[in-house]
UniProtKB/TrEMBL annotation:
Keywords: Phosphoprotein. Residues 172-283 form the STAS domain. PANTHER family: RSBT ANTAGONIST PROTEIN RSBS-RELATED, RSBT CO-ANTAGONIST PROTEIN RSBRC. InterPro entries: Bact_StressResp_Reg, Globin-sensor_dom, Globin/Proto, STAS_dom, STAS_dom_sf. Coiled coil: none annotated. This is Anti-anti-sigma regulatory factor. It comes from the Bacteria.
């Protein structure tokens, strides 16, 4: 279960970030008090746009419109009265988290915000309030909401990618117990420093949990064996030995053996076999002795 995020950006941060002064918020609040009668017209225009939108037809439905309509007054008062407070910031984050979890895309969410803000601007214009000072203050305030929602969505995307990477690492290090006291990890693809570290951690964790005496690393599926890969294998073997587990590297083909020799890598401390079957036979025999 994902832990709830502790956000650090508060109202003061956004005021400083967008150069929003107390005077500008006062101008916005004074103008907002004069367009209270426009609220229904603005929301009706927003819902009409959502129903007719072709670009976001797959995202906008009556259920979403009903969800927005439940908090019309809060949305309206926060924006037109310039209530840039910590409560407002947290409210916007909560809406961002809710709609992102519901599957609403960031693009479509920003589309809703843009349309809503645009019709509020029209309301100011209809009432003869669209001064330069007011429009500047309103534009800054509107940008805050977009910034908050974007941050929430970006964080969710980063978490999703991290979870996917974690899952892929789990799948790429499938340790299996193939015999009593014998673990097997077939390696496939490329091995870089990050993956080598993950493999070692997984290997040592399994050795510690199962108290296995042999660990077979099969590298027949490794794409390239160079100096870095060979050094990673040596480290894995030594780490396992420190825990009382013998590491056997199987899948050493002719080309791989030749490459290792040409690289001048000392592998005297590593036990190797040409096939996984030979490695398993060796581990079973030594356990019986």
């Amino acid at each position: 279960m994902q832990e709830r995020v502790v956000w650090t950006k508060d109202a003061d941060y956004y005021k400083e970030q967008y150069l929003i002064s107390a005077e500008e918020l006062a101008v916005l609040r004074a103008a907002g008090e004069q367009i209270s009668a426009e609220r229904r017209l603005v929301y009706d225009a927003l819902y009409d746009w959502m129903r007719k939108s072709e670009r976001y037809a797959a995202c906008f439905n009556e259920e979403l419109i009903r969800a927005i309509s439940l908090d019309e007054e809060v949305f309206w008062d926060d924006v037109v009265l310039g209530r840039l407070t910590d409560t407002y910031v947290n409210t916007q984050r909560n809406y961002g988290e809710h709609f992102s979890m519901a599957g609403l895309s960031l693009e479509s969410f920003i589309g809703i915000l843009t349309c809503f803000h645009e019709h509020i601007r029209f309301a100011f214009m209809r009432n003869g309030l669209a001064t330069f000072e007011l429009m500047t203050a309103f534009k800054k305030f509107a940008q805050v909401a977009v910034d908050i929602v974007t941050e929430v969505y970006n964080h969710k995307m980063a978490c999703t990618l991290q979870e996917q990477n974690d899952s892929l690492r789990e799948l790429s290090t499938p340790v299996a117990q193939i015999w009593e006291g014998v673990l097997l990890l077939p390696l496939v693809g490329f091995i870089d420093s990050k993956r080598a570290q993950d493999i070692m951690q997984r290997m040592l964790a399994e050795v510690g949990e199962t108290q296995s005496k042999f660990f077979i690393l099969d590298i027949s599926g490794v794409a390239i064996v160079d100096t870095a890969v060979a050094n990673h294998l040596i480290k894995m073997s030594k780490a396992a030995k420190l825990m009382g587990c013998n590491c056997i590297i199987s899948g050493i083909s002719g080309p791989i053996a030749q490459t290792i020799v040409e690289l001048g890598i000392d592998i005297d401390e590593i036990r190797t076999t040409s096939s996984m079957r030979d490695a398993l036979r060796l581990a079973i025999q030594e356990q019986k002795e």
